[in-house]
Design a protein that fits this description.
heterodimer, A: 188 residues, mainly alpha, globular
Chain lengths: 188, 173
Amino acid sequence: MNFGEWLSQPWPWYVAGPLIGLMVPVLLLAGNKSFGVSSSFRHICAACVPAKIPFFKYDWKKEQWNLFFVAGIVIGGFVAFNYLNSGAYAIDERLSAELQAYGIANFESPSPTEIFNWQSLFTLKGFLMMIVGGFLVGFGTRYAGGCTSGHSIMGLSNLQWPSLVATCCFMIGGLIAANFILPLILKL
Amino acid sequence: MHTEQVQDNIIAIWNTDFEVRSLDQAGSNESEQQHPWWHLLKYLVAGIFFGIVLVKSEVVVWFRIQEMFRFQSFHMYGVLGSAVITAAISVFLIKKFKARTIYGEPVKFYPKKFSKGQVFGGLLFGTGWAFTGACPGPLYSLVGSGVTVILVVILSAIAGTWVYGRFREKLPH
């Protein structure tokens, strides 16, 4: 297997995890930036719809680096998906059995195509998973003061105990939602 | 003019979440150097790299997130755990050797202040993470991967952030 083929395979956790962790020193050394993604939503609010709300009243242009960073993530997603792609995803048997009972059988797209498509935005299931889900991501991360990158990676690596609290709550919220709420939605 | 300035100061004092550096009055003596705009391109490059890793590690995959929350796969725990360990060693080394940025400035760390928001917001974000199968980084990278409907999810996340900002004072912190 040559290097190009290897790159096209899914990368194992012990390769991908350390590469993600290296984002922390890279951003710090590149210009004292704390690794974080969800604050980009706040900067977009501050730039586009501040509406005289104090929380959005700051010089967002000083935080522009974060918008360049997330624009890069979009481009990176494009590059990886179009040039380094390996095809369908191998899913745990218990999960695929559970999902097939809800009519989800296509494991070739990163997000299940049966739900994550434009038409299903207008169904209750699609509305709850995409619109309400997205809203909770934006509201929850800002309320918590960070997301997986800002709290779970940047915060934990700097030994900040509030970030440990936040990370535990991310996991508890996700556990409850995935095991008890999501099955009800998928049944719709 | 004067009242405007007073108001700005009040906002700066009240806004102590330290996630926005331009609000951080304590850091007012920092010698933030001015650079031409293209210096920001290095963050674009860092983002491209991060976006590629997110796709290749399958952190962007909805199914992987479901496996994680159902304890059906170790993969996500391995990714997050090894990321934290790598980042923690890096932070330790930066502090120990007092490493400087490429511009020669000392590296600064900002403490995270505890608030009830980490509990309430954390639980809400966890729910959104399970529904969408993506945290903010993967949301951006999914758009690049051609799942265009995720743009709506991002817009909704921006709306959620706006609503939080609007009602911030009324929420328990």
